[in-house]
């Protein structure tokens, strides 16, 4: 670095000390201007140019375009000084894209350096060629690269093979004899060249046509692998005392591709695979990687029982490991081996269950794939039940989609009976129907339509489906369009089979469906078709149904238009003639599977075709005739010599002018068009596939007789472990006597021709400070407060104007500068209320203790923009707040201003009870204002039960209270009690306060109070001992661990007090620098376990939170981490 200039060091220091992107950009722009000037100087030396090029690389790496220096980089590649040449090639490979126009100038330098006697120059050129070459420049460099395959230096030969590999990746046809070159490199005496050829051979083997040509390499691969595992290679290739692990992995990948499904070839590698896997098991990470590759190869080639047993033994060490990475490898390897024989998963069934409940998302996903692979007709019920549970809980859309697709496949292939299959599909519709494959929907309708072949059972099953789908419609929940399509088809075909619903009820439900907001307009087509079928069954069209059909007959959707007009045409025809005669012939009862004869030859159009041929149209050619014609046209024309005559002159002919009155004489394929029209029919009544044929039971030849049984002594297990194994033993039931899973079809035995159909379509909570919003609005006409709330929609308030409010402070000392003085709390007896006394009111929401002798001073008066802000002068308000504070903890030391205008001030505080949260609001006014009427109304937060009380006479209304008046002598106190009904984070209490002023004009204030994580948790002093904590720690699986940095000098007692006071944690035990504690959700039994471990030296700590709910864990962890 001492050879560099001062400007270079200043550039590096400036970049490192830049405090913003803007400052960094200024430095780079200034540097680029300097470089541009310096490179244009004709007297610049090559040494200085080398430094300029390094500085230019910094500019490029930081995202700036320095293309002005590319030409100088190319010039440096022709330098005789090796260091300057390498810098030039480095700049070219990093900056010059393959499609750049200056690349042509580099080709000559690359060719010269590849011919150089200096092997370092050749290596630089080969490396650069692999980086910047494109398909057009490969032919210019290919001869030189092929010559370098025979270079005396192994490093040059290795780079030449790597460059050829890159050429093949860019354009496979650019290197004609690439397979021969790869075989020659494999026989190279130097291991580094041989290793480079393995990468090329792997890409060649990925092309199926090349596998047969390279089968003869298997003995060579076996010999090389045997030499490696016997340590015949130089120790320079060892890594952690394992011989050439990366070459072993490449060899195993190639062997797997060559020996797949080939018994004779696989028998050549059995012995070396067994020996190599035993020697690779060193207990180190690199050894685990090689063993895993051996297992993958063993499960890919033709199976061998002894090798499978060895692989299963190696997998058991991975699966039972406490390391998540090794456990992931074990589950992945177990998935591979279970495809051959599911019995190998039985011994690991308890570990698999534990992996399903692990906090690692990737491990759970891989375990679910294992369950999908090992499913058969005996354990499908248990496995699908488990997969459905995970699908309900999953918040990852990609994982949910994958789960639903796999469940639908398992239900189709292995369902024990039709009822279970239909219940499973209905459950998928409840979870997320948008991810159900279209094929699964068609299969579901086919199963319902075909049944089992027994009339009584089929009628009962279809009646149950009708009743289930009617309940879905009555639920008023949002139904996905795909689900609606299935519902419409079932109700249209089989609604008459259910005695609980008559046709009028079904039609009413379908009218409700057709008028809903739908995602696809085609869904309405399904509903209209269902209504048509039901009208055909009951032989009457009600006015309500006709009204809905007429409503959609002018729809923009042509398909929907057609169905509506067909419906009306059928009804009109029936009214003129006979309902039974027309409807029974057009839409027969249970006619979904009647046989339909299809005229494949389209004989009805033959007369028309003959007429068009006589008029000169081209005859239609079938596929065989077209192939013959194409073959004849493709035959090359033999020539006796070069054609020396001039080409015939082609006269340009004007394009024919088409008019509306001229018919094109181009050949018309009448039959094909008519047949395509038949295929594209839109009759939903026939939208079912052909009746399924009974699938053949597919079993692989039993290989149990070849398995070597290993006798082991009996293992004694505890009673609890035995119960746990008994609980999950059904999950791992396998098919006896078979090494392959058996697919059981849900389709009935009877068959019917397939009909041509048209298929239907197919916030994290954030802890935020309190926001204060208010909008004083003057109405143009007098209005009462009740009128305001009668039309109010709490979820869509009027646009608000955000005002700045005093932020809540956390301690009493911090509020000393905010309150001007302290006063003594007044006596309870001095206050009278119209309905209840103060004590009786508080008895409804708390058990008060004696009030303190000192009360906090309310908010003083202030002025802002000539608007007088009222004070809370009434000392009774602070006294009431202290009554709450004396029994329960509060969020703030005293009342905190929430919202205000020139007449009304709204203050609040939050108090935490063991079973609820109390939000205390105080409404006050000042300066002699007397408000004749004031009202408040609130929207209950999500997952909270809400009650509202006040100590002032009021009129009760839904979620609110109305007061007769508000004056300066008596503020209004409102207590809002919130009780959680579920675990929900980041919600808010929103509402409005409305009042009438002296002129009887109405104004309102918007109230918005966040409900944070701290508001829904409370202490849990009665939790129990350390042993109960340990039991809960094993039980709860949702874990979150955070590293915290402490401020100030380390004090373990201060950390414990912080956990108690700011996170409401009840301390269970303190062991040196470790603290375990517990808290719970307010009003619920959800327990939160917290383990804290502090480091006095680093002044830091680790806090781990465990609960049974993932959302709760995330939010509590975020809260606990923020208090330090």
Automatic annotation (TrEMBL):
Biological process per Gene Ontology, one example term: vesicle-mediated transport
Q: Which region ranges are annotated with the description Disordered?
A: 680-721, 737-781
Comp. bias regions, Polar residues: 737-749, 768-781
What is any Pfam family matched here? Answer: Adaptin_N
> Can you quote a single GO CC term?
AP-4 adaptor complex
- What keywords would UniProt list here? Golgi apparatus, Membrane, Protein transport, Transport
Q: Which domain of life is it from?
A: Eukaryota
Gene3D superfamilies of this UniProt entry?
Answer: Leucine-rich Repeat Variant
Q: Tell me if Nucleus is a UniProt keyword of this record.
A: no
| Subcellular localization | Endomembrane system
Which positions fall inside the AP-4 complex subunit epsilon-1 C-terminal domain?
1025-1124
Subunit: Adaptor protein complex 4 (AP-4) is a heterotetramer composed of two large adaptins, a medium adaptin and a small adaptin.
Task: Say which family it is in.
Answer: Belongs to the adaptor complexes large subunit family.
What is the stated purpose of this protein?
Answer: Subunit of novel type of clathrin- or non-clathrin-associated protein coat involved in targeting proteins from the trans-Golgi network (TGN) to the endosomal-lysosomal system.
**What protein is this chain from?**
AP-4 complex subunit epsilon
Q: What is the native source organism of this protein?
A: Naegleria fowleri
């Amino acid at each position: 670095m001492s050879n560099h200039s001062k400007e270079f060091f200043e550039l590096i220091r400036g970049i490192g000390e830049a405090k913003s992107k803007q400052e960094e950009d200024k430095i780079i722009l200034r540097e680029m201007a300097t470089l541009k000037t310096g490179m244009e100087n004709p007297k610049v030396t090559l040494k200085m140019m080398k430094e300029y090029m390094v500085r230019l690389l910094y500019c490029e790496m930081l995202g700036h375009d320095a293309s002005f220096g590319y030409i100088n980089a190319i010039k440096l590649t022709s330098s005789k000084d090796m260091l300057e040449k390498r810098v030039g090639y480095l700049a070219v490979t990093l900056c010059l894209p393959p499609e750049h126009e200056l690349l042509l100038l580099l080709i000559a330098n690359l060719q010269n350096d590849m011919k150089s006697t200096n092997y370092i120059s050749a290596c630089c050129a080969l490396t650069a060629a692999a980086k910047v070459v494109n398909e057009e420049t490969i032919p210019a460099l290919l001869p030189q690269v092929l010559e370098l395959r025979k270079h005396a230096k192994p490093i040059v030969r290795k780079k030449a093979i790597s460059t050829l590999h890159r050429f093949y990746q860019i354009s496979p046809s650019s290197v004609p004899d690439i397979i021969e070159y790869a075989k020659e490199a494999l026989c190279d005496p130097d291991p580094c060249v041989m290793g480079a050829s393995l990468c090329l051979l792997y890409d060649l083997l990925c092309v199926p046509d090349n596998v047969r040509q390279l089968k003869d390499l298997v003995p060579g691969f076996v010999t090389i692998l045997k030499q490696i595992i016997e340590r015949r290679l130089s120790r320079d290739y060892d890594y952690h005392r394992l011989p050439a692990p990366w070459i072993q992995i490449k060899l195993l990948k190639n062997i797997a591709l060559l020996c797949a499904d080939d018994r004779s070839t696989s028998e050549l590698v059995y012995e070396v695979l067994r020996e190599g896997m035993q020697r690779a098991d060193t207990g180190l990470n690199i050894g685990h990687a090689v063993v895993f590759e051996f297992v993958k190869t063993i499960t890919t080639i033709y199976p061998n029982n002894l090798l499978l047993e060895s692989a299963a033994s190696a997998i058991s060490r991975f699966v039972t490991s406490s390391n998540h990475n090794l456990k992931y490898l074990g589950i992945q390897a177990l998935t591979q081996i279970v495809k051959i024989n599911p019995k190998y998963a039985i011994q690991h069934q308890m570990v698999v269950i534990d992996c399903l409940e692990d906090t690692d998302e990737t491990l759970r996903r891989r375990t679910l794939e294992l369950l999908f692979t090992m499913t058969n007709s005996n354990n499908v019920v248990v496995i699908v039940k488990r997969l459905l549970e995970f699908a309900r809980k999953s918040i990852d859309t990609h994982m949910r989609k994958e789960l639903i697709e796999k469940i639908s496949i398992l239900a189709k292939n292995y369902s024990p009976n039709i009822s279970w299959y239909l219940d499973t599909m209905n459950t998928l519709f409840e979870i997320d129907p948008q991810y159900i494959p279209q094929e699964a929907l068609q299969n579901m309708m086919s199963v319902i339509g075909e049944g089992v072949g027994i009339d009584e059972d089929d009628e009962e099953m279809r009646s149950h489906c009708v009743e289930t789908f009617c309940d879905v419609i009555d639920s008023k929940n949002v139904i996905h369009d795909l689900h609606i399509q299935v519902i419409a088809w079932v109700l249209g075909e089989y609604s008459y089979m259910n005695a609980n619903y008559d046709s009028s009820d079904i039609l009413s439900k379908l009218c409700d469906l057709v008028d809903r907001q739908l995602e696809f307009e085609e869904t309405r087509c399904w509903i209209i078709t269902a209504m048509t079928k039901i009208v055909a069954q009951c032989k009457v069209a009600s006015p309500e149904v006709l009204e809905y059909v007429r409503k959609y007959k002018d729809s923009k959707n042509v398909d929907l238009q057609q169905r509506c007009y067909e419906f009306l045409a059928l009804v009109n025809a029936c009214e003129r003639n006979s309902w039974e005669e027309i409807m029974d012939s057009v839409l027969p009862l249970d006619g979904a599977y009647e046989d339909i004869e299809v005229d494949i030859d389209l004989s009805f159009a033959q007369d028309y075709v003959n007429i068009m041929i006589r008029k000169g149209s081209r005859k239609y050619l079938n596929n065989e005739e077209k192939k013959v014609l194409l073959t004849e046209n493709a035959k090359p024309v033999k020539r006796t010599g070069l054609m020396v005559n001039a080409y015939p002159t082609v006269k340009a002919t004007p394009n024919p002018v088409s008019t509306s009155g001229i018919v094109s004489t181009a050949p018309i394929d009448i039959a094909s068009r008519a047949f395509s029209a038949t295929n594209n029919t839109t009759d939903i009544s026939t939208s079912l596939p052909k009746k399924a044929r009974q699938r053949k039971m597919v079993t692989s030849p039993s290989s149990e007789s070849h398995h070597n049984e290993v006798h082991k002594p009996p293992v004694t297990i505890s009673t609890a472990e035995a119960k746990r194994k008994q609980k999950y033993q059904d999950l791992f039931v396998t098919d006896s006597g078979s090494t392959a899973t058996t697919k059981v079809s849900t389709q009935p035995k009877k068959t019917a021709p397939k009909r041509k159909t048209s298929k239907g379509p197919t916030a994290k909570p954030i802890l935020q400070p309190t926001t204060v919003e208010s909008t004083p609005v003057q109405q143009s006409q007098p209005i009462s407060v009740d009128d305001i709330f009668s039309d109010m929609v709490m979820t869509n308030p009027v646009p608000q104007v955000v005002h700045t409010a005093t932020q809540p402070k956390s301690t009493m000392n911090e509020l000393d500068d905010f309150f001007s003085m302290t006063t003594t709390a007044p006596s309870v007896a001095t206050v009278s209320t119209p309905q209840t006394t103060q004590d009786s009111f508080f008895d409804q929401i708390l058990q008060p203790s004696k009030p303190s002798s000192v009360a906090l001073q309310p908010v003083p008066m202030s002025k802002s923009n000539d608007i007088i802000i009222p004070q809370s002068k009434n000392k009774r308000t602070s006294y009431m707040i202290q009554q709450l504070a004396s029994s329960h903890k509060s969020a703030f030391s005293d009342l905190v201003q929430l919202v205000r205008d020139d007449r009304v001030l709204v203050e609040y505080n939050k108090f935490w009870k063991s079973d609820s949260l109390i939000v205390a609001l105080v409404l006050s006014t000042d300066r002699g204002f007397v408000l004749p009427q004031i009202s408040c109304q609130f929207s209950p937060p999500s997952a909270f039960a809400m009650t509202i009380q006040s100590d002032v006479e009021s009129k009760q209304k839904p979620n609110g209270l109305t007061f007769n008046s508000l004056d300066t002598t008596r503020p209004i106190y409102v207590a809002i009690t919130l009780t959680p009904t579920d675990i929900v984070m980041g919600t808010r209490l929103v509402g409005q306060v409305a009042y009438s002023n002296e002129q009887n004009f109405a104004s309102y204030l918007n109230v918005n109070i966040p409900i944070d994580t701290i508001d829904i948790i409370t202490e849990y002093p009665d939790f129990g001992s350390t042993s109960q904590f340990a039991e809960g720690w094993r039980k709860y699986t949702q874990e979150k661990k955070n590293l915290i940095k402490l401020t100030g000098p380390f004090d373990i007692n201060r950390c414990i007090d912080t956990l108690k006071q700011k996170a409401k944690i009840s301390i269970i035990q303190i062991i040196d620098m470790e603290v375990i504690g517990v808290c719970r959700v307010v009003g619920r039994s959800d327990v939160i376990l917290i383990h804290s471990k502090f480091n006095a030296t680093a002044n830091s700590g680790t806090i781990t939170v465990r609960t049974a709910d993932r959302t709760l864990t995330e939010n509590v962890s975020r809260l606990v981490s923020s208090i330090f």
